[in-house]
Amino acid sequence: MATKITAAMVKQLREMTDSPMMECKKALVEADGDIEKAVDVLRTMGMAKAVKRAGRDTNEGCVAAYVSEDGKTGALLELTCETDFVSSNPKFEGFAADVAKVVAENDPADLEALKACPMNGGTVDSELTEMIHVIGENMKINRFARITSEGTLASYIHLGAHLGDIVNFKFAKPETAQNEDFKSFAHDVAMQVAASAPVSARRDDVPQEIIEHEKSIYTAQAKDSGRPEKFWDGIVQGRLKKFYKENVLTEQEFIKNPETTISQLADEVSKKADDKIEIVNFVRFNFGE
């Protein structure tokens, strides 16, 4: 009587070998449920390197960005590998960018859904396994984020590809996306997001739990200041205002000209483009965070 192949057995083999789920199930069926034999089956199916390297640490890697030609859809993706030598390999970085494109075009719900997405006649999972064969190191898709825009998106990948972001801009006139002043502004803002790590694009978008956490710290500091209680709220509000200035993108000082805020810069570019340009939101990945 054939052994019943359970989801738990498939999951165990998948974790051991980093092989595609369906291939794991086929291997278990062929091995009549014997995990060790199933590993050998996978090796004979051309996944030997993936099996051998599946347990190795992947502490290096890169962040890749993709933005569609119309600027409406984009994605960030973090792909890991074993060594910094491979992380800077153009083939590795190119694969990460290709998978980011799959994310943008397919909008997968989670990592498992992404691995099942079609890619180059196979799936993302099968292509990942092939990359492991070709390059000879274990690799993992660590995380991804997708972003859409009513206006346009601008991406920035910092030198070394360990830090990247995509910023979402809104405006009224479609031609603004092609305006040279706007393009320069969008690039500078994307670079600002990478360099200054803001919490949110706008003050209203700062998560309430972060605000409450900061206020609790400032309140404790006010109580310890020795100032009368009637001054405490003013102290808290003053320090909260400083927090916004340092952590909200539109209120930050422009890194190229600290005398101007990002919001003021947006107003200047809006006048030049005869449009109202707004920064809506962004996604930012710092490798390993």
Automatic annotation (TrEMBL):
Keywords: Cytoplasm, Elongation factor, Protein biosynthesis. It comes from Olsenella absiana. One of its GO terms (molecular function) is translation elongation factor activity. Belongs to the EF-Ts family. SUPFAM superfamilies: Elongation factor Ts (EF-Ts), dimerisation domain, UBA-like. It holds the Pfam family EF_TS. This is Elongation factor Ts. Associates with the EF-Tu.GDP complex and induces the exchange of GDP to GTP. It remains bound to the aminoacyl-tRNA.EF-Tu.GTP complex up to the GTP hydrolysis stage on the ribosome. Residues 83-86 are annotated as: Involved in Mg(2+) ion dislocation from EF-Tu. Gene3D superfamilies: 1.10.286.20, DNA helicase RuvA subunit, C-terminal domain, Elongation factor Ts, dimerisation domain. The keyword Electron transport does not apply. Residues 74-289 form the Translation elongation factor EFTs/EF1B dimerisation domain. It is found in: Cytoplasm. Its main location: cytoplasm. It comes from the Bacteria.
